[in-house]
Amino acid sequence: MVLIKEYVEEYQVGQLFSVAEASKNETGGGEGIQVLKNEPYEKDEERGQYTHKVYHLASKVPKYLQMLAPGGSLVFHEEAWNAYPYCRTIVTVHKLDEATWKTVDVVPIDIADNSAVDSSGPISTQPEAWLQGLGRTASIDEFRRSVYEIHNTGRSRASWDYKTDEDPTMFQSVKTARGPLGPDWQNELVTKTDCPKMCAYKLVTVQFKWWGMQTKMENFIHKQETRIFTNFHRQLFCWIDKWVELTMADIRQMEAETQKELEELRNKGDIRGTSAAAE
């Protein structure tokens, strides 16, 4: 669960803007993100945006995985069906059929609050929709056992992830006057009825069926997902002055430009961005 101090309507623009910006920050030196498709889709009564991205991450995974993985296998394919406020994502490693993980994002329009996942959040109130989105059958109790609340404030991140200009406790928006976030900002949302607030939920399941490595790799992936979500939402908050006045038309144009820019970035310069090679 990510508690975000933004309106639900704003979050769609902010999320897509931040995805594009973060993608550029993660691309260079032959590695990073490649966008193969970004197009509207319709399925039954569902409409949204479909994306197919390729993540080239050979040097960014732990050394032990670099040594064990077959040559050319550390390329991850991500397909996403973003029917905002719901989004389903499937990540696969084509040369490792046993490796796949799925996520379902929910930004519930009717739950613009700071409710806890275990009490009134959508995992508890809409379990069937979540399980259907993951394409599997399981008890909702299975998912309640691993609930993580991501904190956007403080220096809880590793030193190599921390950036002063991406710290919500030090940032104040010029255009919206939001921030900096104090140590008790989450509790303050309960009493401030005029303050924008919402919860974004992400459910992640991982399957990595390598004998002797399954538990280690599945735990590693969950850890990295939490790390990525934390960094991303801190960036989203601190970049608000860059995106708060944009429209969805602006975002689509930006995405088309970013797709071309990523091709150029990936083929020049040095490898950059988030790495887990030391883990």
TrEMBL record:
InterPro entries the record matches: PI_transfer, PI_transfer_N, START-like_dom_sf
Family to which this protein belongs: Belongs to the PtdIns transfer protein family. PI transfer class I subfamily.
GO molecular function: phosphatidylcholine binding; phosphatidylcholine transporter activity; phosphatidylinositol binding; phosphatidylinositol transfer activity
Residue ranges of every copy of the Phosphatidylinositol transfer protein N-terminal domain listed in the record: 7-92, 155-260
Catalysed reaction, written as an equation: a 1,2-diacyl-sn-glycero-3-phospho-(1D-myo-inositol)(in) = a 1,2-diacyl-sn-glycero-3-phospho-(1D-myo-inositol)(out); an N-(acyl)-sphingosylphosphocholine(in) = an N-(acyl)-sphingosylphosphocholine(out); a 1,2-diacyl-sn-glycero-3-phosphocholine(in) = a 1,2-diacyl-sn-glycero-3-phosphocholine(out)
Subcellular location as annotated: Endoplasmic reticulum membrane; Golgi apparatus membrane
Domain of life: Eukaryota
Keyword NAD: no
Protein name as catalogued: Phosphatidylinositol transfer protein beta isoform
Keyword entries, A-Z: Acetylation, Endoplasmic reticulum, Golgi apparatus, Lipid transport, Lipid-binding, Membrane, Transport
Gene Ontology cellular component annotations, sorted alphabetically: endoplasmic reticulum membrane; Golgi membrane
Pfam families: IP_trans
